[in-house]
């Protein structure tokens, strides 16, 4: 059995995997989201359908892929489709229940920046860009953001809005004609933030074991609201931690 | 000789006929293919979505010293990082400029952040936008209609326009068709008439070929007869300009069933390419100094 305590990153991955207990289909990129989704298939939800942007629907990777286009994803998929088909037939119509997204910057309404730090024409740091995120966030059933909890990530104002979360607040998504519900949670290495149902502002609802609420507040670039009913994250079970480490070792 | 075909219509006069009198793709060496298809200043789309990336063809473009290219590609990964770093591009049309699963692209960043080795003009879209632009090009439509972009800062920085559905009144957006001068893709195999089959992740390769005025497909092998594969996509030789046999032509990307993705190389690239001098030295030894034997 595991005798070591889980790291902050392991807790983040395990908490993300738990969110997929009752999910039918999840859209994922590489990195922690992919690890979490594979872990969810191992521990909570063996029927979970993994959908990668590269066009692999129902991929069943044994190993954690380095890229979204690794051969194992295509070889184990139920269906492999072209990029236009992926966006026009699968993502656009809202056939995917949950999408995991990351970002370099996130604001209090869970809007995301993955384009530039600084001015667009003269950026301090040029980031990769939009990829599939704007349409994924508009159309998938809900969005779960996975990001490191740091002041440079959780900012008062985005340098560039690549992907709309809850826009400027209540009603924004409806006005823009989006089909999905938008971000339902932001899972960090310190806790979980969820949008207030009324104001759509992110509120700290969950804090991971051993983390203080003040840590999360200090690492947030706006005055972070804390839920009256804040909960401490249930610590990783031996099974969750053992399976995660087994997966990372494969 | 430069093969020409306007508006995506294959130019029959420039194409060889097979023994049966059918119009087929021309089989050439990679060197002759790039020489005849790619000119200075052309818009060139080298496609392949993490899989089947035509690295060797891109390297040949650099070896032949092409300049002032408009490079088009959804995911300008290592290949375009190399081409941008060597200064062959004046403009980049793209939707995601990262090293998949590893991090950023250092030559791409250096060009945008510091103008090194030269400034790079950008036109960026979302994946959905780029995919629809290729599909519109393949269909010979002026634009594609889709849901997307709204509410983002991309709208102010790219070519997208609002449109209203004439039947339902729904507000949508239009993106202009992509019509590259040349499309270059890699596939597993072709037969001797230039019919091409690829399998595994299909990306946007077929759309890129059909959207472009000229096209080159490099293949792992040329076979007497294509054996149908599960999920395989066959592209008839009569819509392809030139086919060149280039075994290993997608490395360090891969050709499913034939070569494996060299994940270690993608990690190596992240470290090595941070330094301008190290990058230039590596390119000189490993890309520009490499002779491709005539096949």
Strand order of the largest sheet of chain A: 4-3-2-1-5-10-11-12-13-14
Helix percent of chain A reads 25-40%
What is the ordering of alpha helices and beta strands of chain B? EHEHEHEEEHEHEEEEEHEEEHH
What's the number of domains of chain A?
1
Query: Based on helices, strands and strand pairing, what is the structural class of chain B?
Result: alpha/beta
CATH class of the domain at 6-90 and 179-288 in chain B: Alpha Beta
Specify the number of helices of chain B.
8
Indicate the radius of gyration of chain A in whole angstroms.
Answer: 18 Å
Give the overall shape of chain B, derived from the CA principal axes. Answer: globular
Distance between the termini of chain B: 19 Å
User: What's the pLDDT, averaged over the residues of chain A?
Assistant: 95
Remind me, CATH topology of chain A? Glutaconate Coenzyme A-transferase
CATH H-level homologous superfamily name of the domain at 6-90 and 179-288 in chain B? Glutaconate Coenzyme A-transferase
List the helices and strands and how they pair.
The complex is a heterodimer of chains A (250) and B (295).
Chain A: H1 8-18, E1 25-28, H2 32-43, E2 49-52, E3 56-59, H3 71-76, E4 79-80, H4 83-91, E5 98-101, E6 105-106, E7 112-113, E8 116-118, E9 123-126, H5 133-139, E10 142-146, H6 172-176, E11 183-187, E12 191-195, E13 202-207, H7 213-218, E14 225-232, H8 238-249
Parallel strand pairs in A: 1-2, 1-5, 5-10, 10-11, 13-14
Antiparallel strand pairs in A: 2-3, 3-4, 6-7, 8-9, 11-12, 12-13
Chain B: E1 26-28, H1 30-37, E2 43-46, H2 55-63, E3 69-72, H3 78-85, E4 89-94, E5 98-99, E6 103-104, H4 106-114, E7 121-124, H5 127-138, E8 143-146, E9 161-164, E10 171-176, E11 182-191, E12 196-198, H6 205-211, E13 214-223, E14 233-235, E15 242-245, H7 263-272, H8 276-288
Parallel strand pairs in B: 1-15, 2-3, 2-11, 3-4, 4-7, 11-13, 13-15
Antiparallel strand pairs in B: 5-6, 8-10, 9-10, 11-12, 12-14
């Amino acid at each position: 059995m595991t005798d070591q305590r889980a790291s902050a990153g392991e807790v983040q991955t395990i908490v993300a995997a738990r969110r997929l207990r009752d999910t039918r289909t999840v859209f994922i990129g590489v990195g922690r989201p992919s690890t979490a989704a594979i872990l969810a298939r191992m521990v909570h939800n063996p029927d979970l359908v993994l959908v990668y942007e590269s066009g692999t629907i129902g991929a069943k990777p044994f190993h954690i892929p380095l890229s979204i286009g690794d051969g194992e994803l295509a070889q184990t998929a139920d269906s492999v489709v072209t990029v236009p088909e992926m966006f026009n037939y699968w993502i656009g119509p809202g056939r995917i229940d949950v999408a995991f997204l990351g970002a370099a910057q996130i604001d209090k309404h869970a809007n995301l920046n993955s384009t530039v730090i600084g001015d667009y024409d003269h950026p301090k740091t040029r980031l990769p860009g939009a990829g599939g995120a704007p349409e994924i966030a508009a159309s998938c059933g809900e969005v779960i953001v996975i990001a490191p909890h740091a002041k440079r990530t959780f900012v008062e104002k985005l340098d560039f809005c690549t992907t709309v979360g809850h826009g400027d607040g209540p009603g924004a998504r409806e006005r823009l004609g989006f089909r999905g519900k938008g971000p339902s949670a932001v899972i960090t290495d310190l806790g979980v933030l969820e949008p207030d149902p009324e104001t759509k502002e992110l509120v700290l609802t969950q804090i991971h074991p051993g983390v203080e609420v003040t840590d999360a507040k200090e690492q947030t670039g706006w005055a972070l609201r804390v839920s009256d009913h804040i909960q401490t994250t249930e610590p990783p079970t031996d099974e969750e931690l053992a399976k995660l480490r087994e997966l990372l070792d494969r | 000789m430069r093969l020409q075909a306007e508006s995506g219509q294959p130019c029959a006069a420039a194409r060889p006929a097979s023994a049966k009198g059918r119009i087929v793709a021309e089989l050439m060496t990679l060197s002759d293919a790039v020489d005849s298809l790619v000119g200075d200043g052309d818009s060139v789309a080298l496609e392949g979505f993490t899989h089947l990336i035509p690295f060797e063809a891109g390297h040949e473009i650099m070896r032949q010293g092409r300049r002032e290219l408009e490079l088009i590609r959804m995911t300008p990964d290592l290949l375009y990082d190399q081409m941008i770093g060597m200064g062959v591009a004046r403009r980049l049309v793209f939707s995601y400029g990262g090293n998949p699963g590893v991090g950023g692209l250092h030559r791409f960043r250096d060009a945008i952040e510091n103008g090194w080795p030269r400034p790079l003009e950008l036109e960026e879209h979302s994946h959905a936008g780029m995919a629809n632009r290729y599909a519109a090009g393949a269909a010979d439509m002026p634009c594609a209609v889709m849901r997307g972009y709204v509410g983002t800062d991309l709208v102010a920085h790219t070519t997208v326009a609002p449109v209203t559905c004439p039947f339902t009144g729904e507000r949508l957006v239009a993106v202009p068709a992509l019509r590259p001068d040349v499309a270059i893709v890699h596939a597993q195999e072709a037969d001797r008439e230039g019919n091409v089959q690829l399998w595994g992740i299909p990306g946007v390769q077929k759309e890129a070929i059909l959207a472009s005025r000229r096209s080159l497909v490099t293949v792992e092998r040329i076979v007497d007869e294509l054996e149908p594969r599960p999920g395989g996509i066959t592209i008839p030789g009569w819509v392809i300009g030139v086919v060149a046999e280039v075994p290993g032509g997608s490395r360090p990307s891969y050709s499913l069933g034939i070569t494996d993705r060299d994940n270690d190389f993608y990690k190596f690239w992240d470290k090595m390419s941070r330094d301008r001098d190290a990058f230039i030295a590596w390119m000189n030894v490993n890309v520009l100094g490499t002779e491709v034997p005539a096949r």
